[in-house]
Each structure stands twice: as structure tokens, then as C-alpha cells.
Amino acid sequence: MEDIKYILFGLLVAPLLPLMAIQGKRIRASVPKLPPAKGASGYIGTGKGQVLRLITIGESTIAGIGVETHEEGFSGTLARALADQLGKPVVWKVYARSGYTAKRVTEKLIPQIAETDIDLIVIGLGGNDAFHLNPPWRWRRSIRDLIAALRERFPETPIVFTNMPPIKSFPAFTPLIKRVVGSHVELLGRSLDHVTEPMPNVFYYARVITLEDWRGVSAPPADYFSDGVHPSALTYQVWARDVAGYVGRLGVL
Q1: Is 246 helix (H, G, I), strand (E, B) or coil?
Q2: By CB atoms within 10 Å of each CB, which of 59, 69, 110, 215 scores lowest?
Q3: Domains in the chain, ordered, with CATH?
Q4: Boundaries of each SGNH hydrolase-type esterase domain copy (predicted)?
């Protein structure tokens, strides 16, 4: 179904691609190029239980673009939330690179993983595949290849894919790009759900992120983004705690 929707959507969008290309260049010129967060590993918690070993893998959000350190970004906050939930220490490490698609992550980042024993793998992808308008069948193949590469190393470890990025809410994007790329990332999310659903111990947090869900944080919309595209520290922390809650509800740890 996603493949048919992609083809039909592509026919509608094709005449708009030149305009989107012009708008995309303007956006890239206006958005500051932020460095990845520092401190790609850490240890947190004082509980007496066995240490939970966590790795996070992905694109710019997992790389912590928009914050100074990973401790205030997604991975550090996720580790802290899991430590609080489980009452045990968490040792964590980040494997991520801004601009990487799922295919690129499999080719370049998975071979870099030094750990041999891991209790939880959390993956954040989808933005770059959506920006490239990669078709859902290519995305599914890339995700299967990624999972297969991880399963060779970690056959029993729970793998959790985070929510897809809320591209329709990105302030830096034009209405046209929000609509086209935002709809496409949701299509990729549904494809990801279909890939992971039958796989044992592989999960996708399919809840669609909207700023309205986080309005209780009492912050204006601009405070959710560091540069109009990437999350702010506030967003990373709210998002990571939400994902930690999802992991807790899964009951896999």
C-alpha cells in the first residue's frame, strides 16, 4: 500500500520538484551548521542492580545536533530516564552521524560498534531518507539490512526504533516542503511499522510526534527547535523521556 501511495504521490509532486529544490537551497543557506554534541558515552545512576548497557544509533538527532553535550541531548536523557525507571545504573554510547540515511548507517556506523554485550539498542532514523524522498521499498530494504547487521552481533538484544521526526512542525521549512517531506516521512514510518511488527524483539514507537502533545511543557513553539530543524535541549529531553516510557511499557528489560 505504501508503494502505491508513493507512486501516486510522486506523480502529484513531480511538477513541484524544481520549486522545492530552490526552497531547499534557501533553507540550507539560512540554517546554521551546528556541530554534533560532545561526550558520546557516559555512565549514570547509583542503583545496586546490574548495569544496563545501552547504545543509540542514528542520524543528526541521535548525534545531538542542537545541544552542547549528549548528556543534555537524547541519549543522555534516555539513559537517565531508564536508570530512574529501572533503579539500576546505565552505561551508554552513541553511534550517529548527521546526514546519514539508514543504508549509510549500516555501511559506516555498525562496523564501528566496539561493544560485544548490549542490553538495549535504540535507533533514530527517517529524516534523511525522507529528505532524499527515498521510496518505501528502498527504505524497507535498508531497515532489514540494518537489523540483519545488528542481529549478527547481538542476536537477542531488544531493538527499538524511535518515532519518526515531526517534519511538518519544522519552523525553518516552507509550507510546501513541510507538506511533501512531512507526508513522506509518515509514509516511511508506516513501512517501518510493517517491517518490524513480525520481527521478534524489534519494536517501532509509531506514535506521531506533534508539538501539541508537548504543550504541557509550557514553552513557545520556537523553543522546541535549536535552528528551525533540529531539536532543542527541551525537545530532546521531553522526547527521550517519552521513549523511555515506551521502552518501560514494552517490558523487555
Answers
A1: helix
A2: 215
A3: 2-250 (3.40.50.1110)
A4: 57-238
Output DSSP code: residue 69: B
DSSP-assigned states of every residue in the chain:
-HHHHHHHHHHHHGGGHHHHHHHHHHHHHHS--PPPPB--EEEE---SSPPEEEEEEESHHHHTTTSSBGGGSHHHHHHHHHHHHHTS-EEEEEEE-TT--HHHIIIIIGGG---S--SEEEEE--HHHHHTT--HHHHHHHHHHHHHHHHHH-SS--EEEPPPP-GGG-TTS-HHHHHHHHHHHHHHHHHHHHHHTTSTTEEE--PPP-GGGGGGG---GGGGBSSSSSB-HHHHHHHHHHHHHHHHHHT--
Which of residues 7 and 29 earns the better pLDDT score?
29
- Scored b (16 or more CB within 10 A) or e, 123-145 reads bbbbbbbbbebbbbebbbebbeb
**What is the pLDDT, as a whole number, of residue 169?**
83
Whether the model pTM is above 0.85:
yes
Radius of gyration of the chain (CA): 18
Checking if the pLDDT of 41 tops 80, the result is: yes
What confidence tens digit (pLDDT) does each residue in 152-169 have?
999 999 999 999 998 888
Averaged pLDDT for residues 222-241: 84
Distance, CA of 183 to CA of 135 (rounded, Å): 13
- The residues that bridge with 122 in the sheet, in sequence order, are 56, 160
> Are 127 and 59 within 8 A, CB to CB?
yes
Find cell 515531526 and name the residue: 166
